[in-house]
């Protein structure tokens, strides 16, 4: 391959044969880092390849095309991805016709720098160019140049492309793209662009179709689902969308990710309270339990507001589970301010918390803030927080011992194939001894033993 980089500007009118037309078996392999949004994008990358005749393979060595869909939310993700890209060099040496493509958020951020760091890459495609995969592949195959397709801004809504879903029971459905919040630590608004909501009718149609295909659970995806509709001319909000999806008979469970506490409306909480299908699980990332830090993070709410919000949820949806995200060691987090977070998690009693060490993202406001926290301090705080939270999670879960809960069966347990794994509406994992084939069914399971992260149960 040449070292020339071609900047891909848009669709061409070249007639190109599909792989199937050429009568060759060709294989693709995808590897995905990051959030559910990225997982769903990978399903759309796979869908485009399958519709042009490529077959999926789990064996990288057999692949003609390898795509890495990347994340850059923290430095640790980027390090792992560069490691993975490095590993591909060997395969490229063995098979010079192998096409290596890098997609997603890190591709959007690092752009042509990726070709310099790893000259064995052929395609770099940004988050707004996912739908162009086939044209980019054809460009590489014809010109043997490297191809760069990274648009700064998205089209309002990218053209729909085929989707090949990994899971046959549970499907991800994006309802909006991008984020307008600019939390000071976060790279996402820079790599995913401004908020763009899909038309309500398109979303409903996609879910109706998924129902016909046998899917039982859907997860509505967006960086901030509570702002759904704010950017569009339709006079609809997230609660309206939930109500519309709730009416689709064939779908048994509705989930959504992620909601910003500031935008969680009473109407959404009431809609969830009244529905039997929308899961009673609220994931509301607080990020810090200190008002001083929340302000520096530009989160747009206070600890007091959040406490009130949780109270409202628990009043209206008494059996709800509440989970959160927390960033440890944000610039300016003193021992005293960190202690406020510890007090806060004791007060709220979250079912679970996902904890992250603050990671400097260059170009974001927090990266140039004073008082960056040293890594050993961050790590010690993380441990302290996790110890407390794990105790809380276990104590909450123990209260369910002896209860009978409704679980959607997802498949064999990853650690023990002789058991089924399923999830409660509150998003807790349950495992129990296998009986008859029942993937996708709702089953009543008695909780026998609670652990921090899962339940062991028994069929009733
Ligand atoms: N839009 C979602 C999630 C975005 S990223 C939301 O606002 O909730 C998922 C999580 O990663 C965030 O909730 C945050 O806790 C964490 N995160 C984002 N940027 C980070 C950074 N620079 N360092 C550490 N954690 C970060
Ligand atoms: Fe990042 Fe904040 Fe947007 Fe979430 S809401 S994606 S944390 S900027
Ligand atoms: Fe990562 Fe991009 Fe998602 S940065 S968390 S893959 S939006």
From TrEMBL:
PROSITE patterns from the UniProt entry: MTTASE_N, MTTASE_RADICAL, RADICAL_SAM, TRAM
Can you quote the record's cofactor note? Binds 2 [4Fe-4S] clusters. One cluster is coordinated with 3 cysteines and an exchangeable S-adenosyl-L-methionine.
Keyword entries, A-Z: 4Fe-4S, Cytoplasm, Iron, Iron-sulfur, Metal-binding, S-adenosyl-L-methionine, Transferase, tRNA processing
Q: One GO molecular function term?
A: 4 iron, 4 sulfur cluster binding
Question: What region holds the TRAM domain?
Answer: 398-460
Give the residues the record marks as binding [4Fe-4S] cluster 1: 35, 71, 105
Any one cellular-component term (Gene Ontology): cytosol
Q: Which CDD domains match?
A: Radical_SAM
Q: Which coenzyme or cofactor does it need?
A: [4Fe-4S] cluster
Question: Which residues are recorded as binding [4Fe-4S] cluster 2?
Answer: 179, 183, 186
Localization annotation: Cytoplasm
User: Taking every annotated instance into account, which residue ranges of this chain make up the domain MTTase N-terminal?
Assistant: 26-142
Reactions catalysed: N(6)-dimethylallyladenosine(37) in tRNA + (sulfur carrier)-SH + AH2 + 2 S-adenosyl-L-methionine = 2-methylsulfanyl-N(6)-dimethylallyladenosine(37) in tRNA + (sulfur carrier)-H + 5'-deoxyadenosine + L-methionine + A + S-adenosyl-L-homocysteine + 2 H(+)
Q: Which InterPro entries match?
A: Elp3/MiaA/NifB-like_rSAM, Methylthiotransferase, Methylthiotransferase_CS, Methylthiotransferase_N, Methylthiotransferase_N_sf, MiaB_methiolase, rSAM, rSAM_horseshoe
Q: Which Pfam families match?
A: Radical_SAM, TRAM, UPF0004
UniProt keyword Protein biosynthesis, yes or no: no
What broad class describes the main subcellular location of this protein? cytoplasm
- UniProt KW Nucleus keyword: no
Q: Tell me which residues make up the Radical SAM core domain.
A: 165-395
Q: What is its EC number?
A: 2.8.4.3
Query: Which family, according to UniProt?
Result: Belongs to the methylthiotransferase family. MiaB subfamily.
Subunit comment: Monomer.
Entry function? Catalyzes the methylthiolation of N6-(dimethylallyl)adenosine (i(6)A), leading to the formation of 2-methylthio-N6-(dimethylallyl)adenosine (ms(2)i(6)A) at position 37 in tRNAs that read codons beginning with uridine.
Q: What's the protein name?
A: tRNA-2-methylthio-N(6)-dimethylallyladenosine synthase
Q: Which gene encodes it?
A: miaB
């Amino acid at each position: 391959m040449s070292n020339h980089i071609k900047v891909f500007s848009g669709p061409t009118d070249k007639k190109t044969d599909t792989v199937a037309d050429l009568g060759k078996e060709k294989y693709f392999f995808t590897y995905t880092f990051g959030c559910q949004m990225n997982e769903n994008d990978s399903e759309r990358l796979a869908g485009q390849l399958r519709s042009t005749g490529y077959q999926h393979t789990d064996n990288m060595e057999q692949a003609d095309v390898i795509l890495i869909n990347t994340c850059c939310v923290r430095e640790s993700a980027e390090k792992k991805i560069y490691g993975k890209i490095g590993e591909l060099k060997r395969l490229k040496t063995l098979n010079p016709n192998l096409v290596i493509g890098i997609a997603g958020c890190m591709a959007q951020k690092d752009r042509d720098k990726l070709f310099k760091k790893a000259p064995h890459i052929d395609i770099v495609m940004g988050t707004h160019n996912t739908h162009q995969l086939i044209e980019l592949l054809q460009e590489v195959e014809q010109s043997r140049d490297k191809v760069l397709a990274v648009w700064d801004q998205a089209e309002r809504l990218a053209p729909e492309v085929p989707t090949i879903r990994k899971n046959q029971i549970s499907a991800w459905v994006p309802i909006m793209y991008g984020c307008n919040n600019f939390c000071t630590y976060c790279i996402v608004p820079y790599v995913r662009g401004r908020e763009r909501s899909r038309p309500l009718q398109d979303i409903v149609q996609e879910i109706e179709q998924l129902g016909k295909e046998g899917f039982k659970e859907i997860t509505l995806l967006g960086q901030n689902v509570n702002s759904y509709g704010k950017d569009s001319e339709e006079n609809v909000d997230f609660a309206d969308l939930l109500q519309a999806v709730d009416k689709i008979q064939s779908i048994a469970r509705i989930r959504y990710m992620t909601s910003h506490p500031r935008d969680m409306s009473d109407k959404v909480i009431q809609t969830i309270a009244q529905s039997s299908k929308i899961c009673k699980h609220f994931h509301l990332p607080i990020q810090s339990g200190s008002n001083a830090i929340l302000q520096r993070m530009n989160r747009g709410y206070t600890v007091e507001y959040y406490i009130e919000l949780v109270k409202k949820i628990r009043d209206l949806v008494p059996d709800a589970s509440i989970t959160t995200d927390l960033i440890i060691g944000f610039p300016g987090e003193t021992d005293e301010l960190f202690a406020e977070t510890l007090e806060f998690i004791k007060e709220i009693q979250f079912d679970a918390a996902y904890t992250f060490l603050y990671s400097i993202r260059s170009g974001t406001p927090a990266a140039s803030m004073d008082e960056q926290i040293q890594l050993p301090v961050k790590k010690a705080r993380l441990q302290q927080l996790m110890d407390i939270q794990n105790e809380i999670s276990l104590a909450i879960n123990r209260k369910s011992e002896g209860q009978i809960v409704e679980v959607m069966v997802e498949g064999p347990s990853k650690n023990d194939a002789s058991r089924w794994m399923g999830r409660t509406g509150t998003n807790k994992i349950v495992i129990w001894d296998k009986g008859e084939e029942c993937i996708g069914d709702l089953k009543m399971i008695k909780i026998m033993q609670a652990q921090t992260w899962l339940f062991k149960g028994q069929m009733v």
